[in-house]
Write a structure and sequence with these properties.
It is built from 7 helices and 24 strands. By secondary structure, it is an alpha+beta fold. It has 3 domains: 196 residues, no CATH class; 80 residues, no CATH class; 87 residues, no CATH class. The strands form 6 sheets. It has a 7-stranded mixed sheet. It has a 6-stranded antiparallel sheet with strand order 7-6-5-2-9-10, with no helix packed on it. It is globular. It starts with 47 loop residues before the first strand and ends in a 16-residue tail after the last strand.
Length: 414
């Protein structure tokens, strides 16, 4: 674990570009040494991304303002063109896909709007095109195929308040772009690269875009984060509660920028820095009974039995009348709801027929703390300095400088 002494001063802002750990050339145009080799044909294009905006809904509402074409995914043949598509219900049915009152004997459709047209899905405007696939359980998977930069416009407005300082918005934009590109290059064999919710990055589409966050995306266009020339998943979260976490809680990641232990006293102003939740024994037993974990009987004990180096719950033990259950901190949050157990950094105190969780922070705690980053920006630090603090040892690069070589990905396909 790193020293708890912050690398940046607590009171006096420093001129951008002069702080410890600052990244050389903070103009977002670092040029890497290039091999000159052509991009590997097997590597997906980094210019666009596939976002799962609906995953298991039996029906969606679709509308297109402007000219469009509908094609089948099986053959790519157009089946309808028009100047405007009035709102229509699209449903999964045993025979294929119901498009309004018509049954199409296909397993997938692609809706391509012309450049000035806009798709609305369930009332949310989306840039790019969408694919609608019928799944085996007769639900729909809807994937928004959109340019990476347009995707980020719909992400940043959901992931950060638009009134935050410009430098923190730039830092989050760069981290979000890097995370999205990592998923793009490692999920090519699937039907989508990211989901449109907090399990990947929250995504509002065109409907959610805001001026300040769009400006941050545009001013950092193409900029990504690398560690020793390689792309890695730049996890980030709302509020760390005082110390960042090792990325092993997210998977098989063990590299310096994600090893956690970064002291962060900067997020104390977050409304999520401290939280408390009271959970009755009956509610806990009921939640388990309704979950994949199954019933354990009346709950008699609930405690943290193993913690990570940063103090987060690595394992919790729930003692029931029938059996004892061990869960990870993530499993517990998933069971009870991520908004109810905001982070795995908590203590448990028995209280009569209940348990009181006293916690700090919101999110998994890995990578950049957004509220801490916002405070650093208020103190005068640049986006590059903020990123260097939360992801030690990194460098910035621009995708336009990488067009003639494959992007090397940590943990990705070779």
């Amino acid at each position: 674990m790193r020293s708890p002494v912050p690398a940046f001063p607590s009171k006096h802002p420093r001129k951008p570009g002069t702080g410890p750990g600052a990244i050389a050339t903070l103009t977002f145009a670092i040029v890497l040494a290039l091999s000159g080799a052509p991009r590997a044909s097997a590597q997906p294009s980094p210019e666009w991304i596939r976002v799962a905006v609906v995953r298991e809904d039996p029906e969606v509402s679709l509308q297109v303002q402007g000219r469009f074409t509908i094609l089948t995914l099986q053959t790519g043949n157009p089946i309808q063109r028009g100047k405007r598509l009035a709102p229509v219900a699209v449903r999964a049915v045993p025979e294929g896909i119901a498009f309004g009152g018509e049954i199409l004997r296909v397993w997938g459709l692609r809706i391509e709007p012309e450049p000035q047209a806009t798709i609305s899905l369930n009332g949310r405007r989306l840039r790019g095109a969408i694919e609608i696939r019928r799944q085996r359980n007769q639900t729909l998977l809807v994937v928004n195929r959109v340019s990476l930069e347009d995707y980020l416009r719909g992400v940043l407005s959901k992931e950060a308040p638009d009134y935050w300082p410009p430098e923190v918005l730039k830092a989050i934009a760069i981290a979000a772009r890097t995370y999205a590109l990592y998923q793009r290059l490692t999920k090519a064999s699937g039907d989508y690269d990211v989901t449109g919710d907090v399990m990947s990055q929250d995504y509002g589409g065109e409907s959610g875009e805001k001026t300040a966050t769009t400006r941050a995306v545009q001013s950092t266009a193409g900029v990504i984060i690398l560690y020793r020339g390689r792309l890695f998943p730049t996890f980030y979260h709302s509020t760390c509660g005082g110390m960042t976490e090792h990325a092993r809680v997210m998977g098989d990641y063990d590299l310096p920028p994600l090893q956690g232990g970064v002291a962060c006293a900067f997020c104390s102003a977050s409304p999520f820095f401290r939280w408390q939740r009271r959970l009755s024994k009956a509610d806990l037993a009921w939640a388990l009974r309704k979950s994949v974990h199954g019933p354990i009987g009346a709950v008699s004990d609930f405690r943290v039995t193993k913690r990570t180096a940063s103090g987060r719950a690595q394992e919790v033990t729930i003692v029931g009348e029938r059996r004892t259950l061990w869960l990870t901190g993530f499993d517990l949050r998933s069971l009870l709801g991520f908004e109810h157990v905001r982070s795995p950094l908590f203590t448990i105190t028995p209280a009569a027929d209940s348990f009181v969780l006293d916690g700090r922070g919101w999110g998994h705690g890995v990578g950049m703390c957004q509220w801490g980053a916002a405070e650093l920006a208020r103190r005068g630090f640049s986006a590059g300095e903020i990123l260097a603090y939360y992801y030690p040892g990194i460098a910035l690069a621009n995708l336009r400088d990488l067009v003639h070589q494959p992007i090397d990905v940590i943990g990705g396909p070779s």
